Amino acid sequence: MMASPVIRLTLRGVLARKFRILLTILAVVSGVAFVSGAFILTDSVKGAINNLFVELRGEVDLEIRTKIAFGDSARAERDPVPVSLMKDVAALDGVRLVEANLLRQTTIIKPDGEPLKTSGPAFGISWNGPDGLDGRTLLEGVIPTKAGEVAIDKASAKRAGYVLGDKVTLVGPIGKGEFTLVGLTGTGSTSGGGGASVCAFDPVTANEFLGADDKADSIYVGITAEASRSEVQQAIEEVLPSGYEVITGEQSAKETAGAINEIIDIFGKVLLGFAAISLFVSAFLIFNTFAIIVSQRLRELALLRAVGASTRQIHQMIIGEGLVVGIIATGLGLVGGLGVAKGITFAFNAAGAAFPAADLLISSRTIILSVLIGIGVTVAAAIVPALRAGRIPPVAAMRPELGFSALQRSKRLIVGLTTLVAGITLFSVGLFVQPGGTVGTLGGSAIGAVLLFLGVSSLSTTVAAPVSRAISRILPFPLRPMTNSVPGRLASRNAQRTPRRTASTASALMVGLALVSMVSVVASSVKKSFTDQLKTSVTADFFVTNLSFQGLPVAFGERLAELPELGSVSPFRATRALINGEEKQIGAVKPEMGDLVDIDIQKGSIDSLADGAILLYKDPARDLNVGVGDSIDVTWQNGKTSKLTVGGIYADSSVAGNWLIGLDTLAEVSSAPPVDFFIGAKIADGVSIEDARAAVDKVAADFPSAEVQDQAEFQKSQEDQLNQLLAIVYGLLIFAIFIAILGIANTMALSVFERTREFGLLRAVGMSRRHLKRSVRWEAIIVSVFGATLGIVVGIPLGIAVAIALPDSFVTATVVPINTIVTILIASVVVGIFAAIFPARRAAKLDILDAIATH
Amino acid sequence: MTDVSTVAAAGAINASKIYGKDDSEVRALDDVTVDFALGQFTAIMGPSGSGKSTLMHCLAGLDALTSGRVLIGDTDLAQLDDKQLTSLRREKVGFIFQAYNLIPTLSALENITLPMDLGGVKPDQEWLDTVIDKMNLRNRLSHRPSELSGGQQQRVAVARALASRPQIIFADEPTGNLDSKTGAEILAFMKHAVTDLHQTIVMVTHDPVAAAYADRVIFLADGKVVAEIENPTAELVLDRMKRLGS
What is the pTM assigned to this prediction? Predict the structure, then answer.
């Protein structure tokens, strides 16, 4: 008696429909779990990575490095610092310790001769032992002090199968070496390098084996306890020649962590994107459940109106039920988020990603956003059913038929069309006009797609009945068309009887499958474009890439170039520079690249690269309004500037990118240690492919991280990468489809409940349980095939639009994959069968007398 | 005709209700003028389609007239908006339906006080006790509708209609779903409510026995009032029905 009657009715309403609401809650829970899981995961991993880098910096108080012109980050290319500077710095007051920081690619070869694969980079470093400045610890053995000794991080040594005292083969940037494993190291509190493998040498050995040539990446400085850091910093700056800067250890750690955090943020955003899709699909499920519950409670709601409940009180009641569902689901979803974060960490670690062990952090932002989103979506989805419920006239308490018309009334066609048109417009503007860069493009097309889905969902009510009829006629059931049997006819009629319910149930599935179709169109187009490109523009016979993303040691390319079995050989390097005030990635190749990749030179010649010229893709050439013979001002990252003459303009940027310079030009302006991203090679005239391959493989044996591929292998490995990416995308979309299956199951269960009397009658006049089950199952199949059809009809044009909007360097052909469409249709039948399992069982279990006796 | 000295609890003046348009037009009510006196138990009778239910729906503010006026007390329903109609239903009118009378998720007592709870009004405890005792529901108050027999459910419905002491109670075939013994019991309760508790009840029925409990019977046919009996008996009502039917 204490609570207001609206609250009491709301709570009782939820309790009375526990079961029907359970699935709804489940749908919201999974969406919220995704959202909070994404936040928890990124927060936790970022926190752990920041800690790791702070630990790694150990007692580094100051760091000396070369200044760069732009783009300070861990990825910036810096010229190295001569080790000779260390003497001057060490002599300063307040300086306790000075160390060279040197870090280069070093691969561990396992006892079986294969390189140790790592999820992070493979490093070799210069190390002064645990008493030095960095945060590396010695866990077992001794520190390496002379040539032929190495300490490896404990986790990598264990994975490679090495113990203290073993002979270990390592491959550095300039060649192989044999070392004795004398120590096992850890980083801060961990036994690994956060997914990286780390080989530590004493400074002299490191300088030699890592090919540093008495230069370091930077110089670490530790100060005495009584010294003031800012004073020491100033003193160092004074003795340094120009072109150097001194930063604090904290800033250095922050920059390093920042580069990795960016990747984690992108990962988190992708996860959030899928969470949004799941939530959007759940909204259909919530909407549907509430709409059905409202129509089932028609008499009850009318009675409430008759005894004096106001329209507002009815609104409050239904929205209140949404609120209760939202609150419960959000609470469970937050808990689920912890599970999602743990699960993803586990899955990625199992795949070798080595996320640092981290306590799961739930920030207040995670909670606030999850609560807003979870409750917001549920309540928003309950609004329309609530408004409909409010329209039920009191007289429907006695004449329910009057109430149904109130539930049906809506301007669906106009609203649906308007939403659809607005959606298509926004989607197209986002995709093709691209206002406001990436954010505008993604935001515009995403909101456009949401409106488009809502519009289609709303309009699909109009076609639900005829399409359901068509589906039930066409579906080739094993023995005979569905409509030839009583259960089949009943299923078909039932799907047609409530077109609105059929349409909104199918819509949830539509969203998931439309995205799948869209992605598959884009992916097929990318694949086709790539294959076409490889056929037409790539003429190299071999490609060498690196197993990890660190690039190849340049020595490899140099040795390949000396092989008589090969004709043209060119590496591809990259650097960054400012052109016309904007940061650009610039490729550096030999003129021989012209024999390996057809970049479709329109003016000038690729040979001009040898003379220090720059080549431009036609678009930037047009934007800058330059032609062959004009010059362009370039500022390199180390601050040097060049005036480069345009030596040619090309029309195919798919491999070369927008800007190309010669390798010699790059070497002149940058002294950062070079790496090759890939190497292309052509077989010399008269040499068989087998002989050439054997020669290349022989060189590659000295560079275990290199992967040599011929055209077919290269194509396959690129396709495999794309397929892997696709598998992840499909995997995440499965969640949305799973929610849609829940939706179909829920609607079917509610329909079965509603038709209790009808089923009782059918059973009474002789329908078997099996037939009843079949009828329910077929109805679910009709609904899901309808949803799949909508999904394909919507998704394929979306995919084609995206494929067209993607830049030509990426997609040149548009392909609609027929096999995917067939798969989706077949899968949707399976989805229907799955969704019907429980409702069909429930229908079959009904007791005839009970069913008829129910009001 | 109605005694001039009694005050009308409700009434209709030139009430017409037309469903559909043109060819499919149905005159459910055709210029009906009728009064219901305070403290009287009136039965409205007539064959199916005679307009008796429509008349009641319009009198109760559940449905709107096509033309004419309906008064509850001295309030003209046509002048009220949805909000005012809602509070009128809550405060001035009580309902008893044939079935589906109660909210299944609320207990008997919560169902009885529902209209007042919805209006945020505290029930008059003394009156509530009187009603509950009169309907013999004292030991059923915490039960849910599903735990009550049909007769008990209908008694709860009567109690709910009485609880807010409305100006007038409308009952739509209140015994239609009950066996004759339970039906008689309910009608006796309703009769008590009029004689002992001085309530006003208008009941639509097609059962002459039920109509015999009323103080007055109005006969409708084809949307018009065609006859009226004061202090009816079942025989009188049946006799009149036969004559109207022929």
Answer: 0.75
A397·B120 Cβ contact <8 A: no
Instruction: Spell out the per-residue pLDDT of chain B, length 246, in tens.
Output: 444 335 688 899 999 988 877 777 888 899 999 999 999 999 999 888 888 888 988 888 888 889 999 999 888 888 888 778 888 888 888 888 877 578 777 889 988 988 888 777 888 899 899 889 888 899 999 998 888 888 898 889 989 888 888 889 999 888 887 888 888 988 998 898 898 888 899 999 988 899 999 999 999 988 899 988 988 888 888 888 888 764
Same domain, A82 and A230: yes
* Predicted pLDDT at A477: 56
Measured distance CA(A502)–CA(A495) in Å, rounded = 6
Domain end (from A648, A677, A704): A704
Domain membership of residue A235 as a residue range: 78-247
CA of A389 vs chain B CAs: smallest distance (Å): 15
Q: Are A305 and B86 inside 8 Å of each other by CB?
A: yes
Residue A743 resides in a domain: yes
Q: Does B98 touch chain A (CB under 8 A)?
A: yes
A409 contacts: CB under 8 Å, gap ≥ 6: A391
Counting beta carbons within 10 angstroms of the beta carbon of residue B20, is it exposed (0 to 12), middle (13 to 18) or buried (19 or more)? Answer: exposed
Give the closest of A9, A13, A311 to B82, CB-based.
A311
pLDDT in tens, A789-824: 999 999 999 999 988 888 776 777 888 888 888 888
Cβ–Cβ of A308/B100 closer than 8 Å? Answer: no
Asked if A293 contacts A59 with a C-beta cutoff of 8 angstroms, the reply is no
Residues A506 and A566 reside in one and the same domain:
no
Tell me, yes or no, whether A697 and A715 share the same domain. Answer: no
Scanning every residue of chain A, which has its alpha carbon at the shortest distance from the alpha carbon of B94? Answer: A307
Asked if A715 and A847 sit in the same domain, the reply is yes
In this prediction, residue B5 carries a pLDDT of 39
Q: For chain A, what is the domain count? A: 3
- Structural domain ending residue among the three candidates A247, A275, A306: A247
What tokens does B195 get?
A: 């004689």
Q: Which residues of B touch A399 (CB under 8 A)?
A: 53
Nearest to A779 by CA among A495, A501, A475: A495
pLDDT for A851: 62
A409 to chain B nearest CA, in Å?
Answer: 17
Residues A727 and A852 in one domain: yes
| Chain A residues within an 8 Å CB radius of B102 | 303
Query: Is A305's CB within 8 Å of B90's CB?
Result: no
Q: Are residues A111 and A230 in the same domain?
A: yes
CA distance B200 to B168: 5
What is the CATH topology of the domain spanning B40-52+85-245?
Rossmann fold (3.40.50)
| B121 inside 8 A of chain A by CB | no
Chain Cα centroid distance, residue B175: 12
Helix B108-119 / helix B125-134 crossing angle, nearest 10 deg: 150
Is residue A256 domain-resident? no
In a domain, A56, yes or no: no
Structure-model confidence comparison of residues A141 and A843, the more confident one: A141
Cβ count near A443 (within 10 Å): 14
Q: Apex CA A277: angle with CA A271 and CA A279, to 5°?
A: 100
Q: Report the amino acid identity of residue A323.
A: L
Question: Hey, are the CB atoms on A8 and B101 less than 8 Å from each other?
Answer: no
Residues of B in contact with A395 (CB under 8 A): 57, 62-63
Give yes or no for A307 touching B (CB within 8 A).
Answer: yes
Chain A residues with CB-CB distance to B174 below 8 A: none
Mean of all residue pLDDT scores within chain A: 84
User: To the nearest whole angstrom, how far is the Cα of B114 from the nearest Cα of chain A?
Assistant: 7
B215-229 tens-digit pLDDT: 999 999 888 999 889
How close does chain A come to B97, measured CA to CA in Å? 7
Considering the domain architecture, whether residues A574 and A678 belong to the same structural domain is answered as yes
- Confirm whether A18 is domain-assigned: no
pLDDT digit string, tens, across residues A397-421: 777 666 666 666 566 778 888 888 9
Measured CA distances, B142 to A617, B107, B145 (Å)? 83, 5, 10
Residue A56, φ and ψ in degrees, nearest 5: -65, -35
Here the CATH number for the domain that contains residue A569 is 2.40.70
Q: pLDDT tens-digit profile of A539-549? A: 888 888 876 66
B91 near A CB under 8 A: yes
Regarding whether A236 and A189 lie in a shared domain, the answer is yes
Q: What is the ipTM of this complex?
A: 0.74
